[in-house]
Amino acid sequence: MRNILRFSAAIAGLSFLVTAAAGDDPLEDAIKARQGYMQVVKFNAAPLFGMAKGKIEYDAEAAKTYANNLQAAAMMKNGAMWPEGTDNVSYAGKTRTLPEAWTTYPKVAEANQVWIDATGELARVAGDGLDALRSKIGAVGEGCKGCHDDFRAEDF
Amino acid sequence: MRADQTGDYRREKIWDPVIRLWHWLLVVSVSTGWLLGQFRDFATVEWHIYLGYCTGILVLIRLMWGIFGPVPVRLRTLLPSPSQIMEYTRHFGNRKPSGSPGHNPFGGLSVVIMLVLLAVQVCTGLFSEDDALFASGPLAGWISTGGVLRATAIHHVVATLLLVFVGMHVAAVLYYLLWKRENLIVPMITGWKWIRVIQRDP
Ligand code: HEM
What we know:
In chain A, 71% of the residues lie in helices and 0% in strands. Chain A is mostly helical. In chain A, helix 2 packs antiparallel against helix 3, helix 3 runs antiparallel to helix 5 and helix 5 runs antiparallel to helix 6. By secondary structure, chain B is mainly alpha-helical. Chain B has one domain (11-196): Transmembrane di-heme cytochromes, Chain C (Fumarate Reductase Cytochrome B subunit, Up-down Bundle), CATH 1.20.950. Helix content of chain B is 60%, strand content 6%. Chain B has helices at 17-38, 45-68, 75-78, 82-90, 105-127, 145-178, 185-190, and strands at residues 5-6, 9-13, 192-196. In chain B, helix 1 packs antiparallel against helix 2 (45-68) and helix 5 packs antiparallel against helix 6 (145-178).
């Protein structure tokens, strides 16, 4: 019993030390998470834009998969990645999210809804040929742009 | 017959055909290019880039013409000395045509500033990127992400500066037309302009 207590205390102390040494800041983790999330979005969107522009050959299966991924990403419940106090004033150099994302709430949620709708429409038709893909892809791009113009700074 | 001289002013051909054609081509390529950039969408953004290239070529032609072209369009003529500017400021408000044989000192200065801004705009455009989605400049893949962000940010700031300087350019032309009663637009079409020949206090 004594040993178990000692062992637990040691583990607790150790994990505290490790976290402290790593300087773990849960808010910074959230920033990293959303930036990674946006990169995932980008890597699924880019091949679709490439196909629509004729830079990559259209492939119905791939297009459908990417579009489904994009829709899933858009619908992801990800509020935890945007905790209050993580705007680019408080975390200068780390994030590009403008304070407006919080101060003008729920505008950012409305922008997100526009994007969810656009990705949904795209996912429905992306596998039905290049023309179908082209007819819906513009709105998805507008969705990214609409949000970035209002809630993202140009530079870190 | 039209009199070629009235009072202190004489009609002279000051703008050569190259610079006249160049000027109006630039108006078209910069204004449509600017609008296609500002209001870009997926279907038309490539045209923003093509018009940007046209503008870049026009800027290069202008630099060549500023070295080898006729005197009124030479870069050396365009850059005014401080004393020329001071002198010109004194009668800027007079309700009288300037009769300048080319650009007046402010006009020349504004041309140089606009050319520099356009050159910066084309160069940063080559490295700009809209998250690789709407469009990206052909060289954006060659530099770091931070560099791309910076180039794109400069591209946006200079786009606004161009709007300001083009606006000032047009406002100045209107000021000359309405207040100083000097039409600067027609000479840029026909080449002929009324030049002051007798130097009295203007
Ligand atoms: C003098 C010529 C040019 C003008 C006046 C111009 C103007 C503009 C304007 C007004 C925007 C929109 C900025 C905003 O959204 O706030 C823009 C964006 C853009 N331009 Fe240009 N541009 C020029 C040349 C070029 C060239 C030569 C290229 C590429 C080779 C280029 C590539 C881009 C790209 C990729 C964007 C989108 C970047 C973004 O806004 O995220 N531009 N430009």
